[in-house]
Specification:
Layout lengths: L1 E6 L2 E8 L13 E7 L1 H11 L3 E5 L1 E3 L2 H12 L2 E2 L4 E3 L5 E8 L5 E5 L8 H6 L1 H6 L2 E5 L3 H10 L3 E4 L2 H14 L3 E7 H8 L4 H9 L5 E5 L5 E5 L2 E5 L12 H14 L4 H16 L11 H12 L7
Parallel strand pairs: 1-4, 1-10, 2-8, 4-6, 5-7, 10-11, 11-12, 12-13
Antiparallel strand pairs: 2-3, 8-9, 13-14, 14-15
Helix pairs in contact: 1-9, 5-6, 6-7, 7-8, 9-10, 10-11
Length: 307
């Protein structure tokens, strides 16, 4: 089983603090981590952790951060040989601030991610065609369009920033997409429907055969094979939500590739996301398949009849 992830390559600096400091004030972090990040990179690491052979197409700077990124990905079992190294550019950097009891805050500096171009996709078209699943995550519209010109039926997690700025262009690309992953807000922006069920159906009618909407503690909603399906969430103590959606996508696509039904795959994906958010950091908190399977059984029991 071979997957390809296309998107950003970042270094994530994650801090856990009790409160936001005042101006000119310094406070001690409760904890801090630094690792490879970016939606596509998180997806790749999560899929590799589940036993998938994974490749990445992304753009790095020729700096020390890029070396840290490559080392983390390679140690995680991800093939980095198709990553573009851009001279004179800094590797993308994201600072993630987790305040106890609050939603995370993120400060992003794209750096060398901006150097990934449609030409890079064309040059790697043989790889794009050869793998079992292609997953695009938070890629700019020209990149997504280039991928879809090489191969139809790919998986896509467009992300809130791309959708907010390019909604109409994203809508026009749906005909070439096989699976799409969104949260509630993203689904509303893309479909212009506030109700998640109506949003899923409207998006599905444009092309994607599988529309997955992640709804946090309310679980996950899917439009698959012409039917709606809602699966409850797995309740856990939330530590860090960074990368949870990427892990969800990796677990879902891996489960589907293994031949599991949509419902079973959503249950496994929910379980994977729950395990991830219960641990600090992303790269260092990724679950293995046995953990996901155990969590799925404990949380949902036997059967496959939620929908």
């Amino acid at each position: 089983m071979k997957f390809l992830a296309i998107g950003n390559a970042n270094i994530d600096v994650t801090t856990f603090i009790e409160r936001i400091p005042d101006q000119d004030e310094a406070i001690d972090a409760l904890a801090a981590t630094m690792s490879a990040g970016g939606s596509a990179s998180n997806f790749a690491l999560a899929a590799a952790r589940l036993g998938v052979e994974v490749f990445v197409i992304a753009s790095l700077g020729d700096d020390s951060l890029g070396k840290i990124y490559l080392r983390t990905m390679e140690e995680g079992g991800v093939d980095t040989s198709h990553i573009k190294i851009t001279e004179g550019r800094r590797t993308g950097l994201v600072v993630i601030i987790n305040v106890l009891g609050e939603s995370r805050r993120m400060i992003e500096s794209p750096g060398a991610n901006e150097e990934l171009s449609p030409v890079d996709i064309v040059e790697r078209s043989e790889l794009v065609r050869s793998v079992d699943e292609v997953h695009m995550a938070s890629v700019r519209v020209p990149i997504a369009r280039a991928v879809l010109e090489v191969r139809k039926g790919v998986s896509w997690d467009p992300g809130i920033r791309i959708l907010s700025r390019n909604r109409d262009d994203c809508w026009k690309l749906l005909g070439g997409v096989g699976k799409i992953f969104l949260n509630e807000k993203e689904a509303a922006i893309l479909s212009r429907e506030r109700d998640p069920e109506l949003a899923a159906q409207k998006i599905g009618r444009e092309g994607p055969e599988e529309v997955l909407i992640k709804m946090g503690p309310k679980g996950s909603l899917a439009w698959v094979e012409g039917s709606l399906c809602h699966v409850k969430a797995v309740p856990v103590n939330v530590v860090d939500t960074t990368g949870a959606g990427d892990v969800f996508a990796a677990a879902y696509l891996t489960s589907r590739a293994k031949g599991f039904s949509p419902v079973k795959s959503i249950r496994l994906a929910n379980s994977a996301a729950a395990l991830t958010i219960s641990r600090p950091g992303t790269a260092y908190g990724l679950p293995v398949w046995d953990e996901i399977a155990a969590m799925e059984f404990i949380s949902y029991g036997k059967g496959d009849n939620e929908c």
